Amino acid sequence: MHSVFLITGRPGCGKTSLLRQALAAYDGSAGGFFTEEIRREGERLGFRLVTLDGQAAVLAHADLRRRHRVGRYGVDVRALEAVGVAALRRAAPDTLAVIDEIGKMELLSAPFREAVLEIISRGQRVLGTILLNPHPWADGIKRQPQVRVETLTRANRRQVEEALRQWLNYRH
Q1: Are the C-beta atoms of residues 168 and 127 closer than 8 Å to each other?
Q2: Cβ-proximal residues to 34 (8 Å cutoff; 6+ apart), any chain
Q3: Does the residue 129 lie in any domain?
Q4: Are 131 and 104 in contact (CB under 8 A)?
Q5: What's the whole-number mean pLDDT along residues 132-151?
Q6: Does 45 reside within a domain?
Q7: Reduced to 3 states, what is the DSSP secondary structure of residue 137?
């Protein structure tokens, strides 16, 4: 059984929603973070990190003037490291580490990449999302033998949901 279950897919296909739903039904302990959209009047303005233990920070925003940019968003790498990476480091080795997501913005941070590699290499169970488009670092994660990657679409949502449920309920 793979120790890492990653969901990939096009933006807006429901990766984060599926993770949240699965985690709500999970009876074990978990640590890590989710990414939420910041919206105003139907327009997406940015993204917020929310940890499983209740901390939050703005990861990226259209109004942020930062050196790092992805599309129209300024990315606050320091906020990612202070909140997101810290949450991953607090996730005890015997808990489920939730990483939503391993994406372009998060990969700007060397400490984030190091934390992900550390968690995976020690055999910790990881549930996360990862970008669909080719990226050398992310592609290397996808190819690791302990990593299972499922591509989510509208057509296969039930199958991916069932595979995720079975993976979560499997006790190592």
Answers
A1: yes
A2: 16, 19, 20, 49, 50, 52, 98, 100
A3: yes
A4: yes
A5: 97
A6: no
A7: helix
Instruction: Find the CATH number of the domain harbouring 111.
Output: 3.40.50.300
In total, how many domains does the chain have? 1
Contact between residue 106 and residue 77 where contact means Cβ atoms under 8 Å apart? no
Tokens representing 124 are 């910790």
pTM: 0.94
Instruction: Output the pLDDT for position 171.
Output: 58
Distance between CA atoms of residues 7 and 127, nearest Å: 8
DSSP code of 31? E
Identify the band that residue 66 occupies on the pLDDT scale cut at 50, 70 and 90: confident
pLDDT average, residue stretch 132-144: 97
Amino acid 146: pLDDT: 96
Tell me if 148 is assigned to some domain: yes
Rounded CA-CA distance 19/134 in Å is 22
3-state secondary structure of 134: coil
Express each pLDDT in 37-62 by its tens digit: 999 999 999 999 999 999 999 999 99
What are 74's two structure tokens?
Answer: 């300024």
Burial class (CB in 10 A: 0-12, 13-18, 19+), 171: exposed
User: Can you spell out the DSSP letters for 71-124?
Assistant: TTEEE-HHHIIIIIIHHHHHS-TTSEEEEEEESTTGGG-HHHHHHHHHHHHTT-
Compute φ and ψ for 61, nearest 5 degrees: -155, 145
pLDDT at 44: 93
